[in-house]
Amino acid sequence: PKCRAAGRLDYDSEGLLLLTDDGRLQQQIANPKHKLWKTYWVQVEGAAPAAAIEQLKNGVKLNDGPTLPARVAMMEAPVKLWSRQPPVRERKNIPTSWLELSIREGRNRQIRRMTAHVGLPTLRLIRARIGSWELGELSPGQSQASSVHMPRIRP
């Protein structure tokens, strides 16, 4: 059977990518009409003010229309984070913040555009979860096989 990616990651993004040979499952995971939550760890430039987080939680208006409300929380930098090549550009006099941000959509570069809209440019974007599947302890290039038979994914 042919494996397909259930969703995609932008070139500059990292993290969890699900592969499946079950076309129906792939469609349920990737299709926006199922509104499956995807969770990202987002390193942004600057200290994230409460007002910016509230804007993200309520949804922001992008050029291609308003986003659905997001789940957003401040977080500590991930403990077991691999180094990134090329490294993220950081400026010594400008702090960075980490957000855990979950969305139910998948527009092109959506999280990067959302954080930029509230004045917090994304420096690093790592997908940590898709629905109930988690990145866990996996490192870049590692994989983990599992058998999952799901009749239907519910939002």
Give a summary of the structure in a few sentences.
The protein has about 160 residues and is of the alpha+beta class.
Descriptive tags:
155 residues, alpha+beta, 6-stranded mixed beta sheet, 3 helices, globular
Describe the structure.
By secondary structure, this protein is an alpha+beta fold. Helix content is 16%, strand content 27%. The protein has helices at residues 23-30, 50-58, 110-117, and strands spanning 4-5, 14-15, 19-20, 38-45, 61-62, 65-66, 71-75, 96-103, 122-130, 133-134. Strands 2, 4, 7, 8, 9 and 10 form a six-stranded mixed beta sheet that branches. A two-stranded antiparallel sheet has the order 1-3. It has a two-stranded antiparallel sheet with strand order 5-6. A hairpin with a 2-residue loop joins strand 9 (122-130) and strand 10. It is globular, with a radius of gyration of 16 Å. The model has no long low-confidence stretch (mean pLDDT 86).
**How many whole angstroms does the radius of gyration measure?**
16 Å
Mean pLDDT: 86
Structural shape: globular
Total helices: the number is 3
> Which stretches are low in confidence, meaning pLDDT under 50 for 5 or more residues running?
none
Largest sheet: 6 strands, mixed
Termini gap: 28 Å
**Strands, total number:** 10
Element order, helices and strands? Answer: EEEHEHEEEEHEE
Strand content: 25-35%
Given the helix and strand composition, which structural class is it? alpha+beta
User: Helicity level, as a percent range?
Assistant: 10-25%
